[in-house]
Amino acid sequence: MAYEVAVQSFFDSQIDWKRSPASDQNLFPDFVVKKVSELVGFGLQEPEPLDVHTEAGTRLSPQEFHSQLHQNSEELRLIDVRNTFEYDVGHFDGAIDPGMTHTAQWPRFVKDNIQDLRGRTVMLYCTGGIRCEKASAYLRRRLKDLGDSSTPVFQLEGGIHRYLEAFPDGGHFQGANFVFDKRAQMRSGSASVVGRCSECSSPWDTHHGGRVCAVCRALVLVCDACDATSSGEYWCPEHSEMKGIYHHFLDRFSAEELQLQAGALQSCLAKEVGTRKKNRRNTLRKKLMQVEARLAFLTDGAGASPAPPIRRCRACERPYSECPGSCWGFWRHSAAE
Ligand SMILES: [Zn+2]
Ligand SMILES: [Zn+2]
Ligand SMILES: [Zn+2]
């Protein structure tokens, strides 16, 4: 409570606090409070900065959101504005996953889908209601660019967090609410498992900090059984075509294997054309250079027949057997630990 009072006076504005029970372990070891110019970065080049106070969608309470979900289902576009790895472990019935690995991809989704959204009832939700503020303001501005100020855009106030408080049995929400601290997830009463292992498709909804995309480090759902027999490298949906081609750790491959990877990377690179693919071309080029450098090292004679290296964690780079699994993002232990 003392903390809430202090933060309240620091920011000099009303704060919508969300509380959730936890054990006495320190959930936020790197916790700091600061004023920032932009929360939820979209990396936008807007001539006028988005003003969430005047441009965000209409905020609905959990009860209002719940009853809105029962109306005109044909005309409803219910969109999950979180990342795919969050959607994967739990989401509202019938929600659209925009396929994002980070928030900055929202503008791309809006651009590709705005014609379908026009004239429908658009409903957005996220973890705690923060991302929706920006996402709805951005969407409404793009609709306005098209002369459309009548498409209703709603957002769930307080996010899934508040909804699960109001509907402890889960209501229309299935599975778990992924959170970025060491609680890892909040479950509804029904607690059905909606996640699937990306390797074997069996029900699985526990993320592990060491099971991440080799390319972008987004969390990938992989069950313990599959992970036990894996090389430890995975690929998110966005980078699925780089499976078996792009690896983070190169020291476990022979010269022959690296030769094949270099060829595959080159043909991958040739397919990625257009301005949108610029980042991806850079990523592929960088990896190709690393593969070629490693090849040169091996064929030099100096690095002949390397000892097979032990499996390491992609996120923390420690030997995998020593990785606590909480090394990813905000789960990370503080350096002192
Ligand atoms: Zn599996
Ligand atoms: Zn990825
Ligand atoms: Zn790790």
UniProtKB/TrEMBL annotation:
Domain of life the protein comes from: Eukaryota
PROSITE patterns: RHODANESE_3
SMART domains: RHOD (SM00450)
Rhodanese domain: residues covered: 72-172
Stored Pfam families: Rhodanese, Rhodanese_C
Protein name, UniProt field: STR6 protein
